[in-house]
Write a structure and sequence with these properties.
Elements lengths: L1 H17 L5 E5 L3 E4 L6 E9 L4 E7 L2 E12 L2 E14 L2 E5 L9 H6 L17 H17 L8 E2 L1 E3 L3 E8 L6 E11 L2 E14 L1 H12 L1 H27 L1
Parallel strand pairs: 2-12, 7-8
Antiparallel strand pairs: 1-3, 3-10, 4-7, 4-11, 5-6, 9-10, 11-12
Length: about 250
Amino acid sequence: MKTGIISFLFFLFLIFQANSKKIIIADISENKINIDVGFKGASLLFFGVIDEEGDVVVSVTGPRKSIKVRKKKKVMGVWINSTSQIFYDVPAYYYVASTRPLKELRAEDILQINQVGINNIRFEGAEEKENLKRKNWIEGIINNMIKSKRYFPEEGMIELLDKRLFKTELNFSAELLDGEYLVDTLLLKDGKVLAARRSFINVSKSGYGEKIYKMAMDNSLSYGLIAVFFAMFFGFIVHEAMRRFSA
């Protein structure tokens, strides 16, 4: 497997030398992930070639969603929802890998503009709030995403071969949402972007999971009635089993 990958990378390098206008080529071993009932995550090989020395940074951004965040307040010993805010364009997934730690690249402005790094992700919403309060809301979203394994706080490593060929693994947890995922590749040097490339990964449900999801979306009433029926049916079965066992 590794021999085949290296051979393919070398082939890309030869093509690259023949066309000097392109200074970065990148590809993914698979551009589609199917989510079924037993899905436990996925790992895809990401590889490419550059024609000038520099640092390669790859970020994976999931489909952007609207999220309503609620703040809890303790009243008479009971925690209740007090205030809420809606944030837009919140990535449902985020992962980044680089040849060196981001803090060593000395390209803070470039990373911020391109939203590379968890702390550089931009959310829309609650602009009318004070900066400190808005920052607390955003930190809460990020922390929840990390806990749910949709954001990765640790950066992955990109391996450089002969200072021209690069490869890394893009890791996806079992908490994937379906949709289109953006894979952005940057070639950085001396705090500047030398080249950029965007790839796509399509994540979709398959098998029984897809059928159940479509039914829930297209026929919500029927889905609800069937769910209630099965809940009552299995509840009855369990009740009868326990009653006979006790008798």
